[in-house]
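Hi V.,

You were right to ask for the full record rather than a summary. Here it is.
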Amino acid sequence: MFSLIASSYPTSKSVKEILISSLAAGILVYLFLIIFQPFGTENFHHPYKYLILFPYTLIFGTAFFTSNLCVSRFKDWNIASELLKIIVILFLGSILSYFYNSLFISHVTLSFENYGYMFLYSLALGIPISAIYILSRYIYLKNTHENITRNMAPQPIETPLNSTKTILKISVNTTELIIPESEFLCVQSMENYCTLYYLDNNQVKKLLFRISLSNILIQLQTPAIKRCHRSYIVNLGKVKDLKGNAQGYKLILPEMDFDIPVSRSFISIIIPQLQQLKK
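Predicted structure:
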């Protein structure tokens, strides 16, 4: 249960996507109101009833748009954060809905008690709609990752021709390693130490350095060697396959006995680079 809540969750990357998803959420609220007519809506009679209910679309759509626009700046986002965002959206929507209902529909005196009822109504209305919203976004991300993976999987990624000519020199204190780029595999960071994996006579070797990942990246980075995670640097030219799901991507190097994760914040750098190397 806790692992699911901590799972990565997508944030919208463009204003257009935020606008479309927020409008869809607002329309869901409107459809729910006119189809099921909850909370006494069926007893509300007016020749322009459906037109009067339409502002609830704008109210909740605006709440979704504002919240999504704010969280689009965050790189690390998970389901727990998304649930908290939904609660904030329902809170904002309930306040706006309360003022709209009290001032323009019911014409009742403003009070905390009446707002309490509106907040409960908003929760009852918003929870099923939010569940649909969260699930659909999660499925959308999963399908997006799988489609990109399928498009890249059929052909192995070839090592750039010039990688065999590039020489890497890694120096840390009294330890020095000089290898061709074509023999470098990856670097894994653990606290203040980095383990460098490379090939020596087609055998995987590893060397432990006391150095930060950012400092070793300064010595290693080339067009094919990139940081892909807060704990990993990888030679993209050695990547032979890619797999992904709603949690993100993992790079597969046949020489390694573990997969290398790609953080969501690095996807926009790593995936285009892999696609370029594939061509």
